[in-house]
Amino acid sequence: MSGHSKWHNIQGRKNAQDAKRGKIFQKLSREIYMAAKNGGPDPSGNPNLRMVMDKAHANNMPKSNIDRAIKKAEGNSDEHYDEITYEGYAPGGVAVFVEALTDNKNRTASAVRVAFTRNGGSLGATGSVAYMFNRRGYIVIDRSTTDADEDQMLLDVMDAGADDLQTSDDAYEIYTDPKQFAQVRDALEKAGYKLANAELTMIPETTTPVPDDKKEQFDHLVDALEDDDDVQNVYTAAADED
């Protein structure tokens, strides 16, 4: 695994995301609804629903909101969302991969295109940047929540079936094959670890530094995409900032 680390960037964007709590809940409700609709309302038998519910809990989403989305999926609602991805380049030539969940493809495509063009980026064709990213399971354990040293953590992570462990002063970052994600997550929780983050994500194979004179435009592009109601996730190949 390359040395790319996500945790620093995740923490760096957390305050900005906190200000958009209502919008995040709306997006999570949509994900929960689709996961329950497609795989059933019981998270113990629906790994996708369990994962989205964990994500909702991590974002402090009220239980009532989660239950409402699941009950809606159990009902006769004909509401449906299509999963669509968009690919392009941000200012400075940084690859961007966008995942959306929409009930109106034309509306979403138009909004994503505008976000790219108005912020110095360019929307590309399908496959133009997807090959630069790998789907991985990603788990974080805050080092302040465990007494395990690096040797013990490595042993437990490998026993759980993970592929890679990266350590920093404040966190253990664990990467898994997507198919092994649920198994590794459950094994680490059973071993007594508190997970600060657990998700399926896209990891870039290589990263690109954002030029200083393009950073403001880059940030505006990512913000514009994340602000869109239909956009669920925005992944970039931007190099981590020190």
What layout of secondary structure does this protein have?
Layout: H1 7-18, H2 21-39, H3 47-58, H4 63-74, E1 82-90, E2 94-102, H5 105-118, E3 122-124, E4 133-142, H6 150-160, E5 164-167, E6 171-176, H7 181-190, E7 197-204, H8 215-227, E8 231-236
Antiparallel strand pairs: 1-2, 1-3, 2-8, 4-6, 4-7, 5-6
Describe this entry's structure for a reader.
The protein has 242 residues and is an alpha+beta fold. 43% of the residues lie in helices and 23% in strands. The strands form 2 sheets. It has a 4-stranded antiparallel β-sheet. A 4-stranded antiparallel β-sheet has the order 5-6-4-7. Helix 2 (21-39) packs antiparallel against helix 3 (47-58) and helix 2 (21-39) runs parallel beside helix 4 (63-74). The longest helix has 19 residues, at 21-39. The relative contact order is 0.18.
A few lines on this structure:
This protein is an alpha+beta fold and 242 residues long. It contains 8 helices and 8 strands. α2 (21-39) runs antiparallel to α3.
- For the biggest β-sheet, the strand order reads 3-1-2-8
Got a strand count? 8
On the 0-100 scale, what is the average pLDDT?
Answer: 90
What fraction of residues sit in β-strands?
Answer: 15-25%
Sheet with most strands:
4 strands, antiparallel
Shape: globular
Series of secondary-structure elements, N-terminal to C-terminal: HHHHEEHEEHEEHEHE
Helix content bin: 40-55%
How many helix segments? 8
Query: Would you tell me the structural class of the helices and strands?
Result: alpha+beta
Question: Which stretches are low in confidence, meaning pLDDT under 50 for 5 or more residues running?
Answer: none
Radius of gyration: 18 Å
Distance between the termini: 20 Å
